Write the structure tokens for this entry.
Amino acid sequence: MARMATTRRVAVSTAGAWLAGFLIFFPILWMILASFKTELEAFAIPPSFLFFHWTLENYATVQERSDYLHHALNSIIIAGGSTLIALLIAVPAAWSMAFSPTKRTKDILLWMLSTKMMPPVGVLVPIYLIFKTVGLLDSRIGLVFILCLGNLPIVIWMLFTYFKEIPRDILEAARMDGATIGRELVYVLTPMAIPGLASTLLLNLILAWNEAFWTLNLSTSEAAPLTVFIASYSSPEGLFWAKLSAASTLAIAPILVLGWFSQKQLVRGLTFGAVK
Amino acid sequence: MGQITLQGVQKAFGPVHIIKGADLDIADGSFVVFVGPSGCGKTTLLRLIAGLEDVTDGRILIDGKNVVAVPPAKRGLSMVFQSYALYPHMSVRGNIGFGLKMAGLAKDEINRKVEAAAATLNLTPYLDRKPRELSGGQRQRVAIGRAIVREPKGFLFDEPLSNLDAALRVQMRIEVTRLQKQLGTTAIYVTHDQVEAMTMADKIVVLNAGKIEQYGSPLELYEKPANLFVAGFIGSPKMNFVTGESALQRGAATIGVRPEHLKIERDGAGGWPGTIAVAEHLGSDTFLYVDAGPLGMLTARYIGELSLHAGDRVSLVPDPARIHRFNEAGNAIRG
């Protein structure tokens, strides 16, 4: 009896999980489907789910009208560059706050987080003017810089929590075992911090890849990443659903694939420290 | 050799004095237990000896050499932590051998020593496992293996058994004691568990509020506690303390009698009369918690079964030879 009840509960929760997963995935699925429809079918009512005239013409048009590879390269440079620089700054910062905190550490962390509470649009005009004055408008360096600053608080917070999870006892054990600071770093700390570092890197990469506010406002063509590429299909002449979907599918494809393959690493990073 | 001497060791964190001057002589090869309530400074004292904390004042001598300025690894001591503190990404072999690797030993020598240590601790089948694949007791043994493989002058144990369940704790207690005797290495062991202290130690250091209250063998502490604190801390159940008339008659401010030194008389008029509030029957022992009116609650222990129950009137007669007397300041009055 009890076993049957358990089986049924497992079945119900499995079905529930699938349903929730499907609901979350549905908009992406719909977008991918729409990208293979003609413009007419894309907003037909009632919508057709699978039985429509499949076409690749949207992708062809999109590639013809705008240079996908150019924007994709910009996205890679901007997301990758801002993530790497953020990590370079955040690792030592989080390190020192986690392992030798002072009276002010908590305040500093809160202050960093507080910068994320302000809506970015609040500083759009000053930032725009500064960028214009120093000639950073529509430049990759400018976008790397602004996205790096924008995500830095989150990166530091994440790394700080990961580093904090590393038990002090283990570092002390290494000291008792005769490890110098350098060897402690190489043999003990780094291997233990890698899952946390990896998931921070991935998350930040995804955040920077998808960042639209600053990229849309501070770049037009030269430095424009994929977000601008997508937005260009919402034009004054009207919304082209099918082409917009094709552009979006192309834009999210790389990060989706990356996320898919690093799922294990992401989950491991997020559950790091659960093992005692 | 592993003779450890503390001379006027003090430790303060800012204005807070954790250790208020500790003097101690630990003979080579002895097993010394630091015991005291939580917050008494026992772990801090151990960490000072380990070198994980710097002393504020005083000297720590290992084999006659002042090591206050010597880094932890060079003091020749090894430590077993409460949380085991194993390196989670290394195998058991890597964990035990890490200290040797840091010391720059050759690979085959490390392997030989690690395997010998693992054999002593019955860890040979687990050498290639990761700590997360081991049980609590096995992890503890790896931590001990990491300590013994370096052949230190002394072992420092920081409440190593407190994460284990009761049955395993008793077993590991015996293993640690036997291992220490077999190796003949000086050991300092911190615990808040007085049973561990009494059973494992050659000598016990009772600490309270950063001060050493008494240093002596387990039986010395039991039979001749130096003050009220030690008298109350060592022994289970706790010693009974009586003040007032009964104490004054014996020329003391407070007298103390252990539960096992109270004779229980069913309806005697002598001694301290009272009513049983709770009777605990363990078969091997009977514990009576007696409400003795103005004297407060008294605990009496009877070896074996005694068929008395809550509500029964009894009289408790202290064994005159086993009465401990304390003065106003709480110090023992001898003679």
Q: What stands out?
A: Chain B touches chain A at residues 50, 52, 71-74, 77-79, 81-83, 85-89, 98-99, 102-103, 132, 146, 150 (CB under 8 Å). The two ends of chain B are 39 Å apart (CA to CA). The mean pLDDT of chain B is 92.
